[in-house]
User: What shape does this take?
Amino acid sequence: MHITYIGHATLLIEIGGVRILTDPNFEDTLGGLLPRLSPPGIPLEDLPQLDAALVTHAHADHLSFEALYHLTPKVPVYAPPGISRWLRSRGHDFLPLAPNDTVRIASLHVHAAAARHQGNRYGYDKRRAATNMYLLENSGESCFFAGDTGLGDTTHLLVERMLWLRERELDVALLPIGYAPWWKRGSFRKGHLTSEDALELFARLRARHLIPYHWGTFRHVTVGAHAAISRFRHLVVEHPRGSDVRILEPGEALEVAAAA
Assistant: This one.
């Protein structure tokens, strides 16, 4: 398995000869306002041939229309059903993948589950409410991509159902990390992982490796772009499984050997 961090929640996952792109965003700004601080690790036009792209939800940092115009209709793009219907109405040929459903892409199975995250925020945008997490697995390798999610008692159940009950373990957990000021921390954790939460979910998932994302790409309104990774690096030094955590800079990749 070969995993490249492109930036924010955009990663290129190459597993068993299948290339999957997650939450593609290559734009210079977030919402036309907040600047991008680091260029994409792979420019949009330099991406290799893809087999599919996965969209977890419709927030601007996870769904870029610029990237969609570039990718579709050449590349199948999967999203929660409500999001796929909305995007089809805008001229994009998206494919629905609902929680608890599975799609097969060549030798790879992609399983979806509902994330603990609110895709709609204003009442009138209920079409954007759905949020997915994904588990990618074939006969020998597996990778969990959380999108955006809070930590809860059910966050690990997709891995339990699809791997543990078949006497398999998760190879790689791709988890977002975030940082919120003290006055926002409670509401933030309902739909996001702090650095502490990401390490806790890593343990619950029983993954061999952890790669954090969702940091260092866009400037945010209430916190710096590197606050989360600074906190995370501090925690990893003392963590009992710190050696199994790999922090990738944009453009950097990790080759993960199959479990013995």
Notes: The CA atoms of residues 211 and 227 lie 17 Å apart.
